[in-house]
Every structure is written in C-alpha cells, then in structure tokens.
Amino acid sequence: MSIDPTDPRSPSKQIAAVLRAGIESGEMTPGSKLPSERELADTYGVAPQTAREAMKILKNEGLAVGQSGKGVFVRKTPPLIRMGIERFSRAKRAAGLAAQKSEAVSLGLSSRQEVLELAEVPAPEWVAAWYGIEAGAPVFKRSRREWVNEEPNQIADSYYRPEIVEGTAIKEQSTGPGGSYARLEERGHILTRFHEEIRTRMPSPDEVRILRLPPGTPVVTVLRIAMTHDGPIEVFSSVMNGASVTFVYDFDAPE
C-alpha cells in the first residue's frame, strides 16, 4: 500500500481514513489491536511521525484508545442506553424502576447508583432561578454517579427545596423502589410535566476522570425540570457519556 500523491489530504489523514474505514465496516472489531506505528510506517513508506499523527487522529475522533506498553486498540463501544419519555411513567415507578434503571432493564443491562453527596447547599444561581428563590438560599442536593453494566455513564445532580424532601428517602443513600419521583408522589406531589434541555460539548478534566472517558469522547448535558401543578419540584442536571446514550422521542405532529 502507498500514499496517493494526488490526494489533497496529508499522508497521515490518508492513513487514518483507511483505518477508520476498517473500523466502521467492522473489519477491525472493538478491542482489536491496530497496527503499530512502525508497521504503518513500513506499510505506507512514511516516517514514524506521520504514522503517529494518523493514530492521533483516530484517538481524537474517539475511535481508538492507547494502552501504555501494549499499543493502540479499537475502542470498545460502551453499553447504549435509549432515553425515551416512557422512563418517567408511573407504571415504571410502580414496578420499582427509576428512570435510568427502567431503560437499562428493558435492554437487558445492569444499572446501579453510587451516591456522591447528600447535603444542604447554597442554591446556585441557575437553580435558584427555576425555583424563584434567592441565589444562595438553602436547597438539598442529591449527587450521584450512575453505572450501566459496571461502566460509569452519567453524573447526576438533583436539587430540591429542603421542606419537600425532609423525612423522605430522597435524603438517604437509597431512595427505594421507583426512585425519588415515587417518593415525591407518595407525599402528594403529583408530577404533571417535564422540561428538558439537551446540549453537547467536550468534557472537563474532572468529567473525563469520573466518567472514565477515552480521548475524543463528547458529553451530553441534560437539564430537566420536574413540575407539579404548583411549579418545579426538582431541578436536575446531568453529564452523560455521549457515546453511551441515544435520545428517542415519539410524538404526535403539532397542528
């Protein structure tokens, strides 16, 4: 194999394109080892630096991941969660399933929560705005890392007015069957509507560490407001591994 001198792409991009095609076609399966930089240099008649640049392109695209002392491998695809509106149904909660767990169970995947923080904290300005309170007023924060098939897939923070969650399992390590929404409705706070805002961006260094993200992996941020007839009852914010989630919505066409 050789580099095409008439191709406007650089040699490193040409090599990356060949490897990318092999990955996307399934010829090189997740977890399989890619050719070494020396092998690529010999195959294409290029300098090792050019081969190294090709590998860097694949890593930055999230298609490959390096393992110290072992080489570069096709990145394994994380367990995929489908997030649809059905995850908020009362039927799911009645079956003892919180939102993400219901999606995982439907796909035959395991799911668990690791609680990171349970504390009364000053309300961030954006949380205070949703509740119509002053920034810095006390709110109760429930922070957790969620795992699917023993791989971390999101960091989630929920903020509540303290009087709403006082005496409930929402302030404990386990919220119990059906999750926090089940506990709220048991108290008479009937959920009537959800508002969600979804964005994508590249992760911060802390998010890379906590979610164990390979290079080139974007994250999806979700802001969700759970509402009752009296207004917001939960302000929720999460950062999700962008390669592990797809959002699925079915709805009637608006008039």
- Main sheet? 6 strands, antiparallel
What is the name of the CATH architecture of the largest domain?
Answer: 3-Layer(aba) Sandwich
C-alpha geometry:
elongated
Total domains, how many?
2
Strand content: 25-35%
Q: What distinguishing features does this structure have?
A:
alpha+beta; two-stranded antiparallel sheet; Arc Repressor Mutant, subunit A; 6-stranded antiparallel β-sheet
Structure description:
The protein has 255 residues and is of the alpha+beta class. The chain folds into two domains: 11-74, Arc Repressor Mutant, subunit A (Orthogonal Bundle), CATH 1.10.10.10; 81-247, Chorismate lyase, CATH 3.40.1410.10. The protein is 29% helix and 30% strand. The chain has helices spanning 11-25, 37-44, 48-60, 90-94, 99-106, 125-131, 162-165, 179-186, 205-211, and strands spanning 64-67, 71-74, 81-83, 111-122, 138-148, 151-160, 193-201, 219-228, 231-241, 245-247. The strands form three sheets. A six-stranded antiparallel sheet has the order 4-5-6-9-8-7. Helix 1 crosses helix 3 and helix 2 packs across helix 3 (48-60). The longest helix has 15 residues, at 11-25. The chain is elongated, with a radius of gyration of 23 Å. It starts with 10 loop residues before the first helix and ends in an 8-residue tail after the last strand.
